[in-house]
Amino acid sequence: MNTPLISLKNVSLTKQDKDIIKNYSVDISESEIINFYGENGCGKTSLLKLVTKLSKPTEGEILFRPDLDISDDIFYVGHKYGLKNELTVLQNLEYAVSFSNTEKINSVISELESYAMQSLSNLQVKYLSHGQKKVISMIQLTISYFKVWILDEPFTGLDQDKASILFEKMQNHINDNGTVIITSHSPKNKFKNIELC
Prior knowledge:
By secondary structure, this protein is α/β, with parallel strands linked by helices. It has a domain at 6-83 and 141-194: Rossmann fold. The protein has helices at residues 44-51, 70-73, 89-97, 105-114, 130-143, 160-175, and strands spanning 6-15, 18-28, 33-37, 59-64, 74-77, 148-152, 179-184, 192-195. The longest helix is centred in the last third of the chain and has 16 residues, at 160-175. The protein is globular and about 50 Å long. It starts with 5 loop residues before the first strand and ends with a strand. The mean pLDDT is 91.
């Protein structure tokens, strides 16, 4: 039996005397595409922050497979996009590429073209719409290799065409032995759907 990539064992999270997550366990394996779904207040974002070690559980433990490095292998995109508003789209993506050991500057243009957004290359990020910023944050995933993508409501703000493109890139990632973990408000077709509440 394969060792899970990430395991949550009896994890609880309490904030201001309120149980956000209570005695929760789940195993996440390599090449899985998982959707944790539920209404607002179910603890979806809190769960992702626990997995990324941005916060600590009140009880329980989170185990990582020995070959998984949380700093080098996990990319988290939350509700804030991690983009610099004063830089252009291209400058932001070039900055993201600079953290990779591979030379992928040509792939930046290719990724922009795949979303039909190459015309925005020289526009400062502060002038982009919510959906456009979301796409740029998602492009960071595919120009730098991270084994695990952890994405908080990645399809929110995307039109149907761009959502389809993003899903295709997620499928390509799991076919390449990557793992994708997302949150949303409802089940998603072709995802492993796990309801939080």
